[in-house]
Amino acid sequence: MCEFKDFRRNIPCFKEYDENSFIGKWYDDGVWDDEEYWKLENDLIEVRKKYPYPMDIPRDIVIGIGTIIDFLMVQNWKLFEIKASPWLPKSVKINERYEIIKSIGEGGMANVYLAYDSILDRNVAIKVLRGDLSNDEKFVRRFQREALSASSLAHPNIVEVYDVGEDNGIYYIVMEYIDGKTIKQLLKKRGNLTLSEAIDIMLQLTDGMAHAHDSYIIHRDLKPQNVMIKDDGSIKITDFGIAMAINATQLTQTNSVMGSVHYLPPEQAAGKRATTKSDIYSMGIIFYELLTGVLPFRGDNAVEIALKHMRDELPSVRDEHPELPQSVDNIIRRATAKNPKNRYDDVRSMHADLLTCLNDDRLNEEKYQYKFPEFDIEATRKIKKIEDDVIVGEESLEDIEKEEKIKEDATDKKFDNITRNILIGLGVILLLVLISFVILVIIPMTKRSKNVEVPDCTNLKVSQCQEKIRKVGLVSSDTIEAMPSDDVLENRVVKTSPSAKTELKVGSSVKIYKSSGKKTIKIENYVGKNYITVKTELEVKYNMVVTVEKKDVDEAKDADLIIGQSLAEGSEINKGDSITLYIPNVVEKYPDMVKEEWSADEVKSFAEKYGLELTIKEEPTLPSALGNGKYGKVSDQSRRAGTKIVKGESLTVVVPIKRTSAPTPRPTSTPGTGA
User: Do the first three CATH levels of 451-515 and 520-586 match, i.e. the same topology?
Assistant: First the structure.
């Protein structure tokens, strides 16, 4: 029988089994006897002794045990009843109410399951705290307190918390179930989002967080993994219940906090308390990632990344995407300031800035300048733990600093001794040599290594820009790329990469982008499309002047559909040009009332419909002159059939009526009588 040895290394008991090998012999032939069965039970008891907390049982063993139990068809196996495991099996019921359906997410502090609420008959998301954290009373109290606070939040962009509790060692939060994906999952699929998409998400995010801050609740762990997005584009902020300040000790737990540390504010990395401005910093990092698809700071471990947040300047989003307006870069720059004093005063200010960042008067605004010093030298020299000493590997940061200080002092002392010996031993001659060396070698090297700013070449000729670049000690790239521009004349410089005022080392290369003229628009075939939709698109998107004219037609399916356009399909025009769209004007015409045998009443209704001045002449007529069936029917009309109807014009029709006798002849004059 297989013995339980070193399961963490997944060493197979028998060489022919690769997966779940420790149970292979137990069911390889599907035949069990009593001796094997009781041996299995004894072995399971030994596993329970070795791992008293189910959380600590290696995952492959948990899966294997489940397989064995299923195979034995043991319905109520209590030996491995999981109380705090992140891998809750299906059919587990929490608090005799929430039935686990499936796992939908795993994290460093908790795991999330889709569950069914048997009382309220609805699906919910239930977050179960990790077993190792459930043993920390301080953490549990904080977890429960903050989860209860989060349950009071009611906002369309915040996941609703329904319930918080504990059941036989399982600490849980019951939340609204969101059928969607996280922003992180969306970014992995898309890379980066469009500017309008990113702004829309940030507006919802800042709106939700403003509500939370109004309720004196700080998230402290904002990241794309904690923001859900639904198919309709609406977002939901999650994980208020387990949000907690990440101290420096946790930074050494790479697997659990690597996701959070990428969005960690400098003050939290330094061990200071989180504030509402800490959430603002995290939202600035999220905005950067939405637009670029990458994180601003990366490293091999959490400590390295945290240190970068504390002391490295955040790169500009325009370095990745030069087409983005300065107003957008300013929002990120202000939100992610190292010094909280330089950030937005509150989330609502950031929200208001997002609302107006695409206004024409803001697109090319000046770069945001900080009012207060950004870097606290003492704070950036070390990461403090809030309560205890910080251990990085086997050395504390304090020890590392002491060692570095000793090295610096030793170096300085050594340099002083060498200098003194040189001056004493070699005297004037060596001094002259030293001076010559400085003049000929050191000074030129210093000049080559110093940083210079990229000059602003906007609207300059390419040759003028190349000369400016050369004068400051930089090199113009051989490749000059053309790009459309509505503001810069053709063949003039639109921008450079890196952008103007960026600091570079002397000798670095700068790429020039010249204008190819205004961006042209290719006209589509709009016939058959709704003229309101097309007109709105052309006016808003391309700033075109759109005229709509009616064109007479005999008939039309829809009066709103375009039947013609002044510019042919494929025509290239510039923004602001004009176009005329033609829509149908159905022309009504007079019918042949005589041929169609209209009655007087039908003529009256027709005249009322089109606003005509109607005259009906009743003409007595003998039966011999007109068939009996023609009486009361129009025999003549003043407007010819097929002519256009004009509102207000006159119409005269003749309607015969029956006459019984011939008309009395009028007297005629007799010749010669003068009568």
Answer: yes
More confident residue, 393 or 552: 552
Residue with tokens 């099996």: 89
Q: At 486, is the secondary structure helix, strand, or coil?
A: coil
pLDDT tens sequence across 504-542: 888 888 999 998 877 778 889 999 999 888 888 888 777
DSSP 492: B
Could you report the per-residue pLDDT of 607-641, keeping only the tens digit for each?
998 899 999 998 887 665 565 557 888 889 999 98
Q: Which of 562, 566, 553 is nearest to 583 (CA)?
A: 562
How far the first Cα of the chain sits from its last, in Å, is 151
Cα–Cα dist 476/466, whole Å? 6
> Could you tell me the sign of the dihedral formed by the alpha carbons of 631, 637, 640, 643, in that order?
negative
Was domain 451-515 assigned CATH 3.30.10.20?
Answer: yes
Q: Which residues are catalytic?
A: 221
State the Cα–Cα distance between residues 413 and 399, nearest whole angstrom: 21
Alpha-carbon gap, residue 462 to 482, rounded angstroms: 11
Q: What is the mean pLDDT of residues 469-492?
A: 86
pTM of the entire predicted model: 0.46
Instruction: Tell whether the model's pLDDT for residue 259 goes beyond 60.
Output: no
What is the per-residue burial (b if ≥16 Cβ within 10 Å, else e) of 5-36? eebeeeeebeeeeeebbbbbebeeeeeeeeee
Q: HSE on the CB side for 367, CA within 13 Å?
A: 10
Which of the listed CATH numbers 3.40.50.720, 2.130.10.10, 3.30.10.20, 3.30.360.10 matches domain 520-586?
A: 3.30.10.20
